[in-house]
Each structure stands twice: as C-alpha cells, then as structure tokens.
Write a structure and sequence with these properties.
3 helices; 12% helix; 194 residues; single chain; Pnp Oxidase, Chain A; mainly beta
Length: 194
C-alpha cells in the first residue's frame, strides 16, 4: 500500500513518532555497594490492580544488571531544568565509569520503602519505587521488560496534588530525540462526552 498521501515515511525512526515521552532516571543498587542509574523514556504504568510499572531497558545496560542483582528500582520523574543531567546519564555508561554518580554530581538516598536508591540531587519531581516482579527477556533482541510491583510513589508538594500533576506549574522533562527535549505547555480540556 505505501504511505498515505500527506504523510512522511518514518522508516527506522518509527519510535520517534511516539515521542516526546517523559524522560526518567531509573536507579537501582545496594547501600555501600553497587549502583546503577540511567536515563529511560520507555517506562509506563502497566496496571493499577496490582499496581505495576514496566520499563523497557537495553539488554546490555549496566542498570539492568544491577536491577537483576538487587531486585528493586526507582523511577525518578525529572523536570525540564534537569535536561543536561538526564542527557549525560543516558550517554555515560556506569559499567565503563564506576564514578558516574560523582562525575555527574548525582546524589542518592536509600531512605526508601523498597530499599532501592532514589535520586536526591538533582531533585526529582516525583519518585515511583518498585520491587521486581518479573524480567521478560524474550520480547526483543536488544531490549527486555522489567516489570515491578509499585511499593511507594510520591511527588513534590505544590506540583503533585496526590491525584495528579498541577499542569499549570509542573514542567515534566519530555525527550524528543538525541539531545532534544521539551516539556508540557498549557492545560487543555476535552469537551465532555455526550
């Protein structure tokens, strides 16, 4: 059939049609031991009952190996002002640079329900903590799915109401492609259904 008139073929860049997407920092580790963190945007809620999240991570990533070892992870929601940090966290490998946290000026805390690290510097807008339920390895050659049971979730006071983000104030970092980022702008309401 081909591409319909008026459209441009995305070809190998088809995932970019689904962008921009929130850019998160996914972290895992053990206090006084191994630490892994990376930028990730292929992250989403999976179910509400039970509360589960899923992250699609590269099979070769250091953070994935740490998640497998530690059995927990945090998803740190970042703001548009953190774009340089998020970009660097995505291109610097923790496997190759064991000093990745100090190199990027990142600080973590283990005062979590899950026992996994959460980012404290830069300060995330929100954090979802999860314990690994299952890692699904056979979905793709380059990616696996990490499914986690949500054990805690919290957002910054004044930006998160306890039910949703205050979209007039919060500026969640969204990844376009490469070094290109954007954010939400404005609040738009759909008409009520008839």
């Amino acid at each position: 059939m081909g591409v319909p008139s008026g459209y441009v073929d995305a070809g190998d860049y088809w995932p970019r049609l689904l962008n921009p997407r929130p850019a998160y920092i996914v972290a895992s580790g053990r206090r006084g031991g191994v630490l892994g963190f990376m930028a990730a945007s292929w992250v989403m809620p999976l179910s509400e009952d039970p509360p589960r999240v899923v992250a699609a991570l590269g099979v070769e990533s250091h953070t994935l190996s740490v998640i497998r070892e530690c059995g927990c992870f945090s998803i740190n929601v970042m703001g548009v002002g953190d774009r340089d940090f998020v970009y660097a966290a995505g291109v610097v490998s923790g496997r190759e640079r064991r000093d990745k946290a100090s190199l990027l000026g990142a600080e973590f805390s283990w005062d979590t329900v899950s026992g996994c690290p959460r980012l404290v510097r830069p300060r995330p807008l929100g954090v979802v903590e999860a314990r690994v339920w299952r890692v699904v390895d056979d979905v793709a050659e380059d990616t696996c799915l990490v499914v986690g049971d949500v054990v805690a979730a919290y957002g910054l006071e004044g930006l998160f109401t306890g039910r949703w983000w205050d979209l007039r104030r919060v500026r969640v970092l969204l990844h376009g492609a490469g070094r290109v980022f954007t954010t939400n702008s404005g609040v738009f309401y759909a008409r009520r259904s008839v």
